[in-house]
């Protein structure tokens, strides 16, 4: 089989998968309906890069820890290669929501004993000093965390092994077909944009338009961020989170957010959402937004591709049509799969944190090399898991998915 893959989607998911496969000698046909990379959910000014630990160290927490480490290492590699990545390793201050949350944060650190340069608890005075602004609570301090401009990460991913990647921008894929052992991506006129033995669906919620992926429970969560005018050297110079986040100054603006509305498809900026973000800002940094009016703010709307258990979907697409509904489902590993069809999707609010790990995992699965995470985590993100639901194999939703919402 030729080492040629089509990737549909040039956001964080598609650009990471393309980069990791190109690194292994694959050639990639990358298709996006937008005129360039990073113009969907991955097009915000900046997002947060940090892990999200939990008391029980559940799969979400483990995946986020591994993802954080991988994205940070990947960003360092891209930056060292002189690629146009924009990011800041400023540290992330995750303030406690209330006293109960403060106690949980303290117990997490006590139980897991992370290295102090990874995570430590800070009291209210230390937190205020770090933020450069009086805050209401202490919290977690992640010294190695920071912010990333996601579109610049997409561009850097694609520039990393550029000769192996042929982009087709401005080309919406209308349908996909499998014939003569090749996947074909076709436009609305029926013209073939690319054909290859491997096809990777990295086109967020739109993946469901293609019949083989229509069974996947992907949804979209609208998120609006607000851009706040900011002086270059003003505080905070770090990322601050507390049921939301605010970044340091980037090009005279800060990014503050974000709203979260499932199945809300409105693409227009809304004043009410800016007001919500200003209320979040006040919860993080009391009084900081005084003088800012929601009506005057600029911002951006994006749609997070969401899976019901908040874990991503990475791996081979199962053949839903080959499963008889009345028969017991086989174990996950034995599910019938569609030859050569893969998915990297469902990143939700953690695409920056997960993308490098997800791209690496997918490349390992396609290339048949050992995955970078343990087998139970590989199963936890397998897109086939949803076909086992309702057949006595339901998974519980992770308990710690209640942190700050990026
Ligand atoms: C408001 C907001 C704040 C966020 N904050 C953070 C944060 O702080 N930290 C963090 O880690 N994550 C954050 N995220 C999440 C992160 O941005 C997403 O998880 C990530 O961008 C999803 O990447 P993706 O590649 O799956 O999707 P996208 O970036 O949307 O890429 C999908 C691509 O597919 C293309 N496409 C779709 N359909 C077709 C088709 N039929 N044919 C051709 N092309 C097609 C689209 O044009 C698009 O470019 C945030 C998201 C939002 C919206």
What does this structure look like?
The protein has helices at 12-23, 59-80, 99-112, 124-131, 150-160, 271-284, 351-367, 375-380, 385-388; strands spanning 4-8, 27-32, 47-49, 87-88, 92-95, 120-122, 139-142, 146-148, 165-169, 175-179, 182-186, 192-196, 198-201, 219-229, 239-241, 245-246, 253-257, 261-262, 298-306, 313-318, 337-345. The protein has 406 residues and is α+β, with helices and mostly antiparallel strands. It folds into two domains: 4-42 and 152-218 and 307-388, 3-Layer(bba) Sandwich (FAD/NAD(P)-binding domain); 91-146 and 219-306, 2-Layer Sandwich (D-Amino Acid Oxidase, Chain A, domain 2). The strands form four sheets. Strands 5, 6, 7, 14, 15, 16, 17, 18 and 19 form a nine-stranded mixed beta sheet that branches. Helix 1 packs parallel to helix 5, helix 1 (12-23) runs parallel beside helix 7 (351-367) and helix 2 crosses helix 7. The longest helix is centred in the N-terminal third of the chain and has 22 residues, at 59-80. The chain starts with a strand and ends in an 18-residue tail after the last helix. Mean pLDDT is 94; it is low at 393-405. Residues 8-14, 31-34, 39-42, 44, 47-48, 150, 172-173, 202-204, 206, 223, 225, 257-258, 302, 304-305, 345, 347-353, 406 line the site of flavin-adenine dinucleotide.
